[in-house]
Every structure is written in structure tokens, then in C-alpha cells.
Amino acid sequence: MQNPHTGAMNYDSTAPRIPTAALSVEDAMMLHRMSNRGDKVVVTLKMEAHTLPDAPSRNVVAEIVGSEKPDEVVVLGGHIDSWDVGAGASDDGVGCVITWEALRLMKKLGIQPRRTVRLVLWTNEENGTRGAVAYAERYASVATNHVFALEADSGVFEPARFGFSGSLAARNMIRDITSLLTPLNLAETISGGGGADIDPIAQAGRAPTMAYMGDPTRYFTIHHTAADTVERIAPEEVSKGAAAIAVVTYVISEMPDRLPR
After folding, report:
1. What pLDDT sits at residue 3?
2. Distance between CA 100 and CA 249 in Å, rounded?
3. I need a surface site. Which of 12, 93, 107, 219 has the fewest CB within 10 A?
4. Catalytic residue among 72, 101, 125, 126
């Protein structure tokens, strides 16, 4: 595609802040081949990127209040910001859609689980995670009331799967819960599930975490590039992700006992 992957650069406080730029994979490989041949490589680079001052932004929050244990929270979501080279459809528009849809399905079915299910569409994940940090700071005093956290920030491309991080006892329970998803033909749940947005509150409350993850090759080919547009998103993959998240979220929010830490 010859599209560069945009991103952010962090500087050591003791080092000079020199400009940084991203090349496309194809251009970088070409320059590598030329260098290996012994060619003298001269690159002319024109840049317009610059850092602007911070500006106010907000998380978007919606919730279904629990019927019996409203103070215990199952939190899920994606992030609403994206790099402006593309539309951010896969990173992370679709993550917002499939987590939002989980709540909509519960509302449509008239379901009110025991625990509160809170959707957060986080702001500023891409270059600072201010939304995640602000959420964790706001709920620091009740962090342990967060019983489970789920993030969708890795696309929905097939083959998709869940990743899970938590105790062995919690993992065994998650295995039973995800067995309900057999009709969706998800890949096997793997170890390692979390995300930049849920990690601050989950670590503060020692809550188990989960991530919905699409095929990494397809995802990382387009994410952070001009190719991350809605045309690459298949509706059936969106529906599958939303259904899987809705089932997992509902069961965990409805169980008599919370997941073991």
C-alpha cells in the first residue's frame, strides 16, 4: 500500500528533541536493499507534523445500572480518537461500535443484569491515554468495585479471538463462559488480554481483563495509515464481535459471585 504508519515519539528529558518521521514499509525495504548493495542513499524529506498545545477532551460514558449490585462494575469500551491520516475505522471505530452494541442488545432485550455494565469510549488513547488515566483517578477510591474490564482495540478481522489476563480460578470460569460462543467459531481464548485504556483502573482494582482481538496481520497492515477506512470492515465480522462481547459481558455481570481476582 506504500502508506506510512503514523505514531508518536517520546523523548528522554536529557536528550535533544530531534524531528522523527515514519516511512512506509515498502520504502524502508527499498532503502535497505539499496544500502545492502552499497549504494549511496540520499533522502529528501518534507514534513509538516507538529505538536499543538493540550486541549480539553472527554470520555463518552453510558451504563446499565445493576439490579442487585449496582456498585459492582463491569467496564468495557474502545477509544474514540484516531490518527488523522485515515478514518480510524479499525483503530478504533469498530471497537467502539462492538462494545456499544453489547449494551444496545441488552437494552433491546430488556435485560438488566445484577451488576452495572458501564461503557466508556475513551479519549486520547493514541498519544497520551489521558482519558484512561482520568477515569482511574476519578474512581480510585472504588477501584476494587470494578470486577472485570474488557477492551476492543485490535480490530475484528477474522480469525478473531479473546485474550484473557487473570487468576487461574478466573481463567477456568472464563473457559466455561466462552464455551457459550461455540456457534460463533471464535479462535481459542489465549493468555494476555487487556488494553491501554482499561489497564489503569484494572490494575488499581486488581480486576481480571479481557481483549477482543482480530487477526493481527490484517489489523496492523492498515492501522495508523490512510488505508484504515470503513470499506475494510466486514459487517458480519462486526456482528460477530458484538455478539461475543455481549454474551461475555452479560454472563459476568449476572453471575451470583464476581470473578476471582
Report:
1. 86
2. 12
3. 12
4. 125
Query: Closest Cα to residue 150, out of 198, 109, 104, 189?
Result: 198
Radius of gyration over alpha carbons of the chain, in Å? 20
pLDDT exceeds 90 at position 50: no
Q: pLDDT by residue (tens digit) across 124-178?
A: 999 889 999 999 999 999 999 999 999 999 999 999 999 999 999 999 999 999 9
Report, as an integer, the average pLDDT of 248-253. Answer: 97
Q: CATH number for the 60-254 domain, one of 2.102.10.10, 3.40.50.300, 3.40.630.10, 3.30.565.10?
A: 3.40.630.10
Paired with 209 in beta bridges are 149, 165
The whole-model pTM stands at: 0.92
Active site residue 125: yes
The C-alpha atoms of residue 122 and residue 61 are separated, in whole angstroms, by: 9
Cα(210)–Cα(194) distance, rounded to whole angstroms? 5
Q: Can you tell me the distance from the alpha carbon of 162 to that of 44, in angstroms, rounded to the nearest whole number?
A: 44
**Residue type for 205, please?**
G
Domain boundaries, given as residue ranges, for the chain: 1-51, 60-254
Q: Which of 237, 218, 215, 239 is nearest to 227 (CA)?
A: 218
In the prediction, which pLDDT does 253 show?
98
Q: Is the CB of residue 161 less than 8 Å from the CB of residue 190?
A: yes
Q: Cα(26)–Cα(11) distance, rounded to whole angstroms?
A: 27
* Distances, alpha carbon 118 to alpha carbons 156, 192, 242, 253, in Å: 21, 22, 15, 10
Residues 198-226: tens digit of each pLDDT? 999 999 999 999 999 999 999 999 999 99
